[in-house]
What does this fold into?
Amino acid sequence: MTCDTEELHDHGVSFALAEAELIWPQILDDAARGELQPVYGERQRWQQELQSPIVHPPAKRDLDRYIIPMLGLYPARGCPFVCNFCSVTKIAGRKIRSQSVATTLASLRAAKAAGVKAIMFTSDNFNKYADAPELLNAMISEKLNLQFFVQCDTQIARQAELVELLARAGCFQMFVGVESFDRETLLAARKGQNRPGTYYEIIRLCRAHKIGAHFSNIIGFPQDTERSIHGHLAELIEMGPSCASFYILCPIPGTEQYDDFLADGLITERNLDRFDTTCLTWRHPQLSAEQLRKLLFTCYSKLFSARHLLQNLRHLNTQRGVLRSIFRTVAMTAFNRYSAWRGSHPMSGGIRPCRMDRAADFGTLRQDTYGFELAPLPRSRQLAKEELAIQRTFELTASEETQLSS
It folds into this structure.
């Protein structure tokens, strides 16, 4: 957690403020004794060097539920950038820290033995991971033959050798947070490392090595209008990345943007369940919630067109078989269009929703446990400290005035 949680302490819920490796054993011990503490990890948020365990995949019966059994691995954590809307630096810090290559390789071997077909390297800046070449070369020499997905920042445009190595090791898709094509918008969001002129080079590099370029896009920045979003979409279609995802700008609790919006009275949504990048949670100066939601699904339906499908088929990576590659490409287009048609974000679920429970089921539980149905909007820990200091100063001043008057 990166927010102040004091209002919810002593209600049967414990909050973790540090990485799991630092506190998980203590949490389990305390839980076994029935002595859970309100907060864990206040003294140390991050490990200086990652001492991560080997990851063992779920049982085969669980993997069989998925069309493509996939496992997520986190070889490095942290991001050096300061985007004001992003929670990564608040959760993982700005310093790039990594686990040993031996640990990652052992996890990859376990994944292959269990029947995992694809790996998602969830590190936010794989191209900033110093041991990436060593890991990739080891994967090649061991002939692991595991397809994998990476996330890179836009500076990958200047790392042609790394892109070539990623391709040889089995990378099938690269996720890049382009977010906007407007330089002024990027600067306002403190994402100055992104230069739209390099976006074409990323696509060119990926196509040259048969890696899919997946561009992430945020719509609904304060500067955005309906016209500018349509212009962004038109430029994206012209660029032609093999895949793209879209999100409505969401001030995530704990980020600088959230603190700014909260201080300015812009946050309009009280239900934290809706802070999921699919709906508007703040007062946009030019766009309504209905407009942005409609634009979100318009982006998906217009990008994933017949033209886009044919373009992807022309740049197909057939190393895993022609028919399989064609099927996956057609299926991706069909699924994204289907999701847009039914008004469901493609990343929020599969083809058929599986409802285990409903939001209404938790209303009574929340009321009985916490004394309210919706949790109060969280504040950052720094903002909470500042407010407390101001309150104490006010109380002290009031006390002094009372003493003087008496």
